[in-house]
């Protein structure tokens, strides 16, 4: 779970939703899920909560009919009751498709409503019995999946029985039907309205009727016989107790009426809201947080014609050297073994008890590598640096595209800024043909860490066994701390990162200490030996299956 951006990306792809890491707050717009900028060294618990938020909100995006909810025009209290039911329904619907979610949802429920939970303790300490009615509905549906929180539900039930006799059986009857049959949002809305109507009917019933009923009961108990002093005293005490109970009940009923008229701020937080509040409380307000760039756009044009001849020459030279190496290791070799075709020239080995006298065809080695070129287009790359970087990027992309078993992608960063978001500009996605539109402008900051996370998200689903990221840049990133964190995670996850410094060796400060390769070029002829030296081991090392 240490690589939240990759986990979020996987979950987003699995659920069919867009997940953004690095927003101002945890939220969703009904289509996209946004996680705030969390600290780089956040705890495993916080990361689990972040994943839980994605799971929870994804269940609503997939299974809640938001249009129908809007049309229902529920009051805040009705919406609270609806949300308690809808959370349970949607989470179970998602868990039915992705069974692994069930365990994680149960962990979230225990965390927020279990023993020692701050949320549970706050509810239990509240003196308003009307809130117990709301909490009871919430805890009841949660206890269906996590029986461990049933104890907290019973505490709320006792408070309801004391303040509102005979209300609990009515609520339980409705909730029992919810558990038996609740297929969609329309049903949860209908149940929420029924719960609200039941609570309102109880809250607005006339206490005078109960008083009259108690008086009649007292008269019938006295009978027709003569009353003694003790009997009279008992009757007076009973009447006094009845009046006290009715007075208390009337006050409790007023609280129940008030809760039905509450605003959203006056009601307890639901699970999704609690998760968002926790994540927002840990949001970072500086550049040392965990942020993933989003895909944007950047104006690009074909490289000038006078560059293309030089590019072609260097691309052919690089391709030829790589092709020669690849051809040398991918051809099939014969080796001596215990089985196969007898080699008469090796019969002398029998005298020394060496059974390896047979020729066996060795397995053909194959290259299976995805290479993603990350091109720095920040302001410091202006002028001749940008020209050199664009030509070098295109040269490498063209050479690698011609190598069998190599899948090339190219991304420039930053793209055009939108709403102060960090963006990248995909130039060539994996599986696409390399084009000539590599003439780019240099502007903006250097969000290398954010761009690295985005590239890793794109490469993670690729089928290639080897995954290499090649950075073309001249300077230091906006946040060295965040970049080193991204690079360390890339290394841990099996990505290999290489650097090609453009007329500057700043990348040597970032990569060599982490065991990664880097070279510096000052002109295009430097490209072939620099790239050949780095890619030789990358393409023919662990990336080759023997």
In short:
This protein is α/β, with parallel strands linked by helices and 546 residues long. It has 19 helices and 19 strands. It has helices at residues 4-15, 44-63, 66-72, 76-97, 100-113, 118-124, 129-143, 150-163, 168-180, 185-203, 207-222, 229-260, 271-281, 305-330, 384-401, 448-459, 480-492, 507-510, 527-540; strands spanning 18-23, 27-28, 32-36, 38-39, 289-290, 294-295, 300-301, 334-337, 341-342, 358-361, 366-367, 369-376, 406-413, 423-428, 439-440, 466-473, 496-502, 518-521, 544-545.
Give a written overview of the molecule.
The protein is an alpha/beta fold and 546 residues long. It folds into three domains: 64-205 and 257-271, no CATH class; 300-329 and 366-545, 3-Layer(aba) Sandwich (Rossmann fold); 332-361, no CATH class. The protein contains 19 helices and 19 strands. The protein has helices at 4-15, 44-63, 66-72, 76-97, 100-113, 118-124, 129-143, 150-163, 168-180, 185-203, 207-222, 229-260, 271-281, 305-330, 384-401, 448-459, 480-492, 507-510, 527-540; strands at 18-23, 27-28, 32-36, 38-39, 289-290, 294-295, 300-301, 334-337, 341-342, 358-361, 366-367, 369-376, 406-413, 423-428, 439-440, 466-473, 496-502, 518-521, 544-545. Strand 12, helix 15 and strand 13 (406-413) form a beta-alpha-beta unit. Helix 16 packs parallel to helix 17. The longest helix is centred in the middle third of the chain and has 32 residues, at 229-260. The radius of gyration is 35 Å and the shape is elongated. The model is unreliable at 120-125, 218-223 and 542-546 (pLDDT under 50).
